Amino acid sequence: ISDTKSPGRLLFAEFFYRNIKSVNITSRSISDFASHRFTRISNMIQESMTGDIFMTVKDAIGVFSYQHKTFQTIVLFPIHGFQDGPFSNTIFDSPSDLVFLNNYTLLVADGGNHRLRVLNLNTNISHSICSGEIGGADGDLTSCSLIGAYGLLVVDDEIYLGVSGRIRLITGEY
Q1: Contact between residue 126 and residue 75 where contact means Cβ atoms under 8 Å apart
Q2: How far is CA 22 from CA 8, 29, 46, in A?
Q3: pLDDT at 99 over 80
Q4: Contact 29, 23 (CB under 8 A)
Q5: Is 105 helix (H, G, I), strand (E, B) or coil?
Q6: What is the band of 119 on the pLDDT scale with cuts at 50, 70, 90?
Q7: Which of 76, 83, 71, 87 is closest to 124 using CA atoms?
Q8: Could you give the CA distance from residue 35 to residue 18 in angstroms, rounded to a whole number?
Q9: pLDDT tens for residues 32-67?
Q10: Per-residue pLDDT tens digits for 152-173
Q11: By 3-state DSSP, what share of the chain in percent is helix, strand and coil, each rounded to 5?
Q12: Which residues on neighbouring strands pair with residue 30, listed in sequence order?
């Protein structure tokens, strides 16, 4: 990802060493950005105001503080399954991608549950969009069905989602 707090720098998840690396574009140098050892980072995005990095890791969704260089778990799911509600009770199955819908809301692709999940960071409540049924039905957020859910992009309130070799457009209020 392009570092929003430091122009000319990229941040990336280094899979083998399980940390976050920093690349200075000008000097072409690579250094450790975070020495924290993460377990299988799937994806990460950066919040533009604080620079905090939100990420999906093996059994959690968390935030890495840009300023303090510390990791805090938002949602921990030691078992895989499905449950919405307060973050303390929320369960995922293979979250693969996440994007900001606005400053306080994350959209997470929950591939194992064939759903898109909305995490409200103000209320600490999650809810699902799409039916959760396995299938390829296009439609709005309440009627669409998915086979997996991988790769998210939100443009002008429209959700583009990579699903089983196709790109789907999903519309509606989330």
Answers
A1: yes
A2: 10, 8, 13
A3: yes
A4: yes
A5: strand
A6: very high
A7: 87
A8: 9
A9: 888 778 877 878 889 888 899 998 887 788 898 988
A10: 888 887 888 877 777 778 777 7
A11: 0, 50, 45
A12: 23
Q: How many CB atoms lie within 10 A of CB 112?
A: 15
Q: Residue holding tokens 């049924």?
A: 133
Instruction: Please name the residues in contact with 28: beta carbons below 8 A apart, sequence gap of 6 or more.
Output: none
Question: How far, in Å, CA of 156 to CA of 12, rounded?
Answer: 26
- 120-134 pLDDT, tens digit per residue, is 999 999 998 876 777
Residue 82 burial by Cβ neighbours in a 10 Å radius (0-12, 13-18, 19+)? middle
Q: pLDDT higher for 80 or 133? A: 80
Please compute Rg for the chain using Cα positions. 16
Could you tell me the CA-to-CA distances from 140 to 88, 130, 144, 169, 170 in Å, in that order?
28, 8, 6, 9, 6
